[in-house]
Write a structure and sequence with these properties.
Elements (H helix, E strand, L loop, with lengths): L8 H31 L2 E4 L2 E4 L3 H8 L1 H36 L7 H9 L6 H11 L2 H10 L16 H13 L1 H12 L3 H9 L4 H12 L1 H15 L4 H6 L13 H11 L9 H26 L4
Amino acid sequence: MPKSSGLNPRWTYWMWYILPALLFYGVFMAYPLLDSVRLSFFTGRINDRTFVGFDNFIRLFTDPVHSERYINAFANTWYFFFIHIVVQNGLGIFFATLLTAPKMRGSKIYQAIIFIPTTFAVLVTGYLWKLLLNPVWSRPALTEIGLGGLAQPWLGNPDTALTAVSLVSSWQWMGIPTMMFVAGLMNISEDIYEAADIDGANAWTTFFFIKLPLLLPIVGMVAILTFVNNFNAFDIVFAMTTVNGAPGFSTDLIGVLFYRTGIAGQHPIGIPDPGMGAAIATITFIMLAVVSMTVLYFTRTKE
C-alpha cells in the first residue's frame, strides 16, 4: 500500500491558485522590501557601494541637515495623519450613519457622489485644487458670491499650506472609509436595533453603545489603512506644492523626504543617497508594522 505524502489533497488543489499570488508578492513586494533594508547598511551609488553598518541611521538622527529635515517631515506626517483621522474618517462615519438611516432616500446616489472623487487621479486632483486655491484664479468667482475674503494664498503660507493639502487629500479619499462603514452598519442585525428601541434607546445611545462598538474592527482597519497611506504619501504634495515641501518645508512629508533623499537628490548638492533613503524607508516600515499591530490588537472584538 503506497505511503501517504502527508499533504491534504484539498490543500494541494488550492495551492496552485495561491502560488501565482505568492510569487507575485515575493518578487515585487517582499524582495524589494528586504533589499531596501539591506541597502540601508550601505552608502554610495549602485556600482560603488560601501558597507557602513548603522552609520546611515546614526547620521539621520545626528547630522544637523538630515536630522532637521527628518524630524520636520516626521512631525508634518503625523499632522497630515491627524487631519485625515478627524476629517476623512470622522465624516466617513457621519455620512455612513446618514446613508444607512431607515428614512434615508436616494442613499445609492449619495454614495456614488461621495465615492466619485476617489476615482480621480491624484495628480489631476492636486493640480485642479492648486488652481482653485490660487487667489489669482479664485478671487473673481469668490467675490461674485460674496466670499472674496477666502481668496488667500493658502498654499503659499507656511502656516496653512499643509492643512490645505491635508484637507484636499481627505476630500478625495473620504469615499473609501464611508463605503467601509456603510458595509459595516448594514451588516448589523435589525434585531439589535429593535431590542434597543424597545428599551427606549435614542439615536445617540444607539450610535455610541451599539453601532460604534460593533464597528470597532472596521474603525481599526480604516485607521491602519489611513496610517499606512499617509506615511507613504507623496503624489498629492508633488501635485500641489513641490518635492521640496514648499513653502519652507512646511509640506514636507516622510514620503517626499525619502524621494528627495534617496532618488532625486536633496538640494543643494542634488546627489541621491540611496543608503540614507533606504534608512528612512526602513524606519518607516518598522514604525508602520508596530503601530498597525498595536491598533489591530486593541480594536479586535470577539464574536
